[in-house]
Write a structure and sequence with these properties.
51% of the residues lie in helices and 10% in strands. It has 329 residues and is of the alpha/beta class. The strands form two sheets. The chain has a five-stranded mixed beta sheet with strand order 1-2-3-5-4, sandwiched between helices. A two-stranded antiparallel ribbon has the order 6-7. It is built from 13 helices and seven strands. The chain has helices spanning 3-27, 58-70, 94-115, 133-144, 171-185, 191-200, 218-227, 234-239, 242-247, 250-266, 270-279, 288-295, 300-313, and strands spanning 79-83, 86-90, 125-130, 153-156, 161-165, 204-207, 210-213. The chain starts with a helix and ends in a 16-residue tail after the last helix. A hairpin with a 2-residue loop joins strand 1 and strand 2. Helix 11 crosses helix 12 (288-295). The protein is globular and about 60 Å long.
Length: 329
């Protein structure tokens, strides 16, 4: 075969190959033009996209989830309310479950997303609101095989559920809502900030359209620890791994993290700190450097003395009427 003939074949085939590749790209479910926004039904170009069979709509996903969930309900007294990105399930009267879904879950989600989080949890999560301690303990064991180690409630990532004794108040619920959002938006977040932010909102309300934490029951124990010289340095707190944070001086760690977040909030720096830490997480995995930067201080020992003196001036004051009952886990 001559070289001239080969060149001729290549010239003839090249345009056909290019047209074939363009065709494959445009019809592929992975092409940019075929990606469909589940909310609008449009592709990324703004034009109607091809809907892959494996991508059900958001409404269809929730409908299927609710159908599956109803098969697991322990009794007919449970009510199921879709409150994206969650499904709320409770054994109180239906009107009460609906009120909790709107006035606590939706209220908290809207404000947390306004100030901190851009992404919803990737999977649909259930919020189980059991009406009292007996229901909480009985159904937690029956549904999840768990014996709760807290009387208030907890987030069970493995079960894709927030499990609550709602009789203890809504504070724990808002606390636990923080965790799946943190998991979706800041998976490398250390325990001190995850729990510090969560516990900040155990006692919270609306201030100028934003979620705002108030002083709460953790304050007295922290003040006692400060007076006894048992509060660790902030460099030590922020460097704690999860095992250390949750076991060595757990109560002090929670309260110190909470009232550090409270101080930042009161100085108008909490959102700025979260954003800075989130941005710098690879070079600052503990958040300590970000904390120094946002506070504008190098002498953290001096700052801790100032912070401890500030904490000792605080008291449990509900002059600003909180949206939620005061106690949480």
């Amino acid at each position: 075969m001559s070289k001239n003939y080969q060149r001729l074949n290549i010239k003839l085939l090249a345009p056909l190959v290019i047209l074939f590749l363009i065709f494959i790209y445009r019809v592929s479910p992975f092409s940019m033009s075929s990606y469909v926004n589940r909310e609008t039904g449009l592709g990324q170009t703004g034009r109607p996209g091809l809907v892959p069979a494996t991508m059900p709509s958001r409404d269809a996903m929730f409908a299927q989830h609710v159908n599956d969930l109803k098969k697991r309900l322990p009794s007919a007294e449970f009510t199921v309310i879709v409150q994206p990105p969650f499904v709320v399930v409770g054994d109180e009267p239906p009107a009460v479950v609906q009120q909790r879904a709107e006035n606590t879950v939706k209220w908290a989600v809207d404000r947390l997303k306004q100030d901190f989080f851009t992404r919803d949890p990737q999977e649909i999560l259930d919020i189980w609101l059991f009406k009292d301690a007996a229901s909480y303990e009985k159904h937690t064991l029956a549904l999840f095989g768990d014996k709760p180690d807290t009387p208030y409630g907890y987030y069970a990532s493995a079960h894709k559920a927030l499990i609550m004794n709602i009789a203890t108040g809504g504070g724990t619920l808002v606390h636990e809502i923080v965790h799946p959002f943190m998991e979706a938006n800041f998976p490398a977040c250390p325990a001190w900030l995850n729990e510090g932010l969560g516990s900040l909102y155990e006692q919270c309300g609306d201030v100028n359209g934003h979620i705002h934490g108030f002083t709460n029951w953790r304050l007295a124990g922290l003040q006692q620890a400060i007076k006894a010289g048992k509060v660790p340095a902030f460099k030590t707190l922020t460097a704690m791994d999860a095992n250390t944070f949750y076991h060595d001086g757990k109560g002090i760690n929670y309260s110190q993290a909470r009232y550090l977040c409270y101080y930042l909030q009161e100085q108008g720096l909490l959102i700025k700190f979260y954003q800075e830490f989130h941005t710098q997480q690879r070079t600052d995995p503990t958040g300590y450097k970000s904390l120094q930067k946002v506070l504008g201080v190098r002498d953290m020992s001096g700052f801790q003395t100032k912070w401890e003196q500030y904490v000792l001036t605080l008291h449990e004051d509900f002059a600003l009427k909180p949206l939620l009952p005061p106690r949480g886990a």
